[in-house]
Every structure is written in structure tokens, then in C-alpha cells.
Amino acid sequence: MGEAAVTPPSAEALNLRLCHCCQLACSLEQPHRVCPRCGTTLHDRKPNAIPRTWALMLAALVLYLPANILPIMHTSTLYGESSTTILGSVVTLWQGGAWDIALIIFIASVGVPVTKFLVLGLLLVTVQRGSVRSRRERTVLYRALELIGYWSMLDVFVAALLASLVQFGVLGAIEPRLGILFFGLVVVLTMLATLSFDPRLIWDTEPRNE
């Protein structure tokens, strides 16, 4: 018979805490429970992680509606003027045969934000309910969300790229509109919401009283 698997000791059993700022494993014997490297106060869990993440995510969700409804740019040419939304740009590019650019814009402006909302919502609800199911899978989801977060500014970059593609020099002009501002705020808020969530809460058997 094989040997029984040995469960490694937890950080709590070793009297250690991870610094949220510089990721240093710190002993709680440090004076005033601060990180010896960067001076950040040490916490068992990120303070108010759940309500802060909910607030940031809901704010981003509210701003996501005008980001898609309001025009992101206004184009003036010899043939007239027009205002374009993000989804309108996707449809126009697809109908014009530029399906590759349309697909990139759709993924960056719709796929990525919606994925963030769904994954964060799932993590928050399951943590608050104290769910013990699929903890490893939910942790992988959060790590994937962090990875996506590194490319979040691609959304704004794609919108800027789209604007540059329709510059006509002396034959026309293009101006940014309010929609791109809302979209930028959505990107920033979803990034902050991801950083505010504490994935260690997934492994708590019960929601902590923060």
C-alpha cells in the first residue's frame, strides 16, 4: 500500500502572512505586524475584500452600458458626418470585409469585459455562500482573470487604433466622443475589482467576518 499523502502545514500554522504589496512571506513576530521589506500592514485576508470588489464591479457594470451605447468617435468627411459606437464599428468592419479587425474589437470590447463580470460574480457569490465545491477550478478561474487583466488596456488601445484607421487627413477629421471615456473607466474599475478580491477566501470553509 502506498504512503498516505501528507498535507503541508498552512501559513497560519507556520505563523506566516503574505504581504499584499511585495508578496513577501512575513513572520507575524514582526513588530506591529508590518512587512519588513515594504512596510505594508499585514492582514490575514484583504480588508473588506468582498464589499470592495462588489462595489467596483457594479460600478464598472453600470458604466459599461453607456460605454456601448454612446458613440466613441465622430467622423467628418466630404460626404457628411457620422458617429460610431463600439458595436457599430464591429458591424461596419465585418460588413466591409475586415473580419479580423472586427473580431479583435469584439473580443476586446465585449468578450473580455463580460468574462470579467461573470467570473467575478461567480467568485463573489460562491465565497459569500461558503461553497466548498470546485475550489481548485475557481482558483484557476481567478488566475486566468488576473492574466486577462494584464491585457485589459488592449480594449482602449483597440479603440484608439480604430480611430487612427479612419483618419483622412485634409479630407476629413475624427474626434473622440464620450463613449471611449466610459469604456476606459470600465477597464480601470474591472482591473481594480480583480485586484481587490482575495482568492484565499475561496479556501475558507466559511465566509470570514471582515
Automatic annotation (TrEMBL):
It is found in: Cell inner membrane. InterPro entries: PqiA-like, PqiA-PqiB_transport. GO terms for cellular component: plasma membrane. It holds the Pfam family PqiA. The chain crosses the membrane at residues 54-73, 101-127, 148-174, 180-198. Keywords: Cell inner membrane, Cell membrane, Membrane, Transmembrane, Transmembrane helix. PANTHER family: INTERMEMBRANE TRANSPORT PROTEIN PQIA (PTHR30462:SF3), INTERMEMBRANE TRANSPORT PROTEIN PQIB-RELATED (PTHR30462). This is Paraquat-inducible protein A. It comes from Marinobacter nanhaiticus D15-8W. The lineage of its organism: Bacteria, Pseudomonadati, Pseudomonadota, Gammaproteobacteria, Pseudomonadales.
